[in-house]
Amino acid sequence: MTPARPLQRLGAFGLDLLLVLFVLGAGNWLLWLLGRGGVENGLDHAFSNPAAPLILTAALVLTILLFWLRLQATPGALLIGIRLVDGQGRPPGARQCLLRLLAYIPALAVALLGILWMLWDRERRGWQDILSGTRLVQEDEATRSLASLLREAGA
Q1: How far apart are CA 27 and CA 21, in angstroms?
Q2: Helix 94-109 crosses helix 52-71 at what angle (to 10 degrees)?
């Protein structure tokens, strides 16, 4: 298995970030329309709810976990041609995916050292990969196509 290159990982992250920003923008636009349609202070009310950031964060976390579990990649990774596998090249389990997501906390917290670690690691793994026993590999080494992954996911 050929490890995903750092620029591939960065590209996938950038595409995922654009998707998240688009969804948030569309949601804001919808709330704005609802506010103009007669709902008194609809937009202000939606953002004054202290639970809103928690709900958005939980939705994002669940979405990432579901993409990793069902398709072995986020939308950006699928477009770039990389996927998430365990140490043997198989799809990771729920425990590994959750551990990988939680491992981003120390990887990001120490001045991004855990993320940048892939620049020095022989297998191009960040701390989140090392701690969870996962890795991102290039799709050219994958045994399944996007079409087969979508079929398996029931899409």
Answers
A1: 10
A2: 130
